[in-house]
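User: Fold both of these, please.

Assistant: Here is the first one.
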Amino acid sequence: MLNRYMLTVILFLTTGISFAQIKGTYVYSAGVDAGTRTLTFNGSGFRDQSTGHVSDKYGEGSFRMDNDHLYLNYFKLEDKDSSTYKITTSEELYEYTYIFVQAFDGKTPMNGVQVALRDGEFNIVFAADSMSEGKTSLRVDKAEKIQYFTVDFIGYNRVIIPFSRFRQKRSDVFVDFKPQRTMIEPPRTEAYKMVKSDHNNLILINSEGIKFLFIKRK
């Protein structure tokens, strides 16, 4: 029993030391992209922020260190940014759902905008693209699986509206797209080989053999 207790304490202390070695904020410091990415470690969590020419990227999650490897487990994060929209509704007598959409960038109508009906897992059940003057019209007869209504255009913030707002109504939706400034990192796990980790430097190599040099921010 005593030996088991000592082993537990040693393992706990080892884990604590590993996290302490990689605590704080590290700034990417190589080439023309120096200063564009920061990794911040606190406890067993991390935050990943990148600044680009057009848009930024953001992610956070948990990390662990094992056999000279660093594993970054990105959590699923909801994108808090959205384009703006206005909805007007009226009752529909025949229990169908009618949705008219018109999309704009400022005052300019946008053609090629995707309007989609999605299920509870966010999979597309049906989708259509806006045509002349950014307009799209949908009639939904069977809506049992539909949970979300989305409006998308590449490079702009998505509009997400619960489908319950439209069910068995006649609705007009006017969307004003806003450029997407921050991209949310998708959930995944990234593994890096740790070449060096101390109070000043963090050198990592990814699965493709690319080396990343980070310097700790004072």
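And the second sequence with its predicted structure:
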Amino acid sequence: MDTFQKEMNHNRDEFRRTRWTKHREQVTGLFDAVFLKKGLVDNVAIFGAGNCDDLDLDHLATKCNSIYLFDIDIESMKKGTKHFSESTRNKIKLIEFDVTGLNKIDFEHKLSFLLERGEKADDIVRFLKDTESQLGQIADGVFADYINHFDIVATSAIYTQLFYNWAIDTLSEYEHQYEREEIE
């Protein structure tokens, strides 16, 4: 899945940042409600930072001391932060991090194995529910180093942008094995 995410992050056209201006303003505005109450904060965490184009990090940097960016694709974060001001870049800490936790449990390999064997849809659904339970159990360990470390924590659209797109791409190879209702 990390390969898929890196391909998604790197498959960007040069005008993407400009096209996303309105989106970025709206998302950044969500933080302003917090800053109205708290003014300056110490540490902000953004999980699933990717290309760093969902937020106006220059604006955010004026309201905090440190910005921690977490993503599995550190190269995209490095590239995405290059255009920010030097004072903003000095506040940013990049952390390579599997936000989904799916790599820890070898999810992609296990799901591919089930699909390649043509397992029944009910068995695959059971596997997905078991995976959900596993992720809930390991979440505390995955985030242990960061609990109570941040004043603000935000996540990007990780499951809609990453997981959903990956799942559609992966399942499309096996759609001939299942009924439409089973795929949905």
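The chain has ten helices and four strands.
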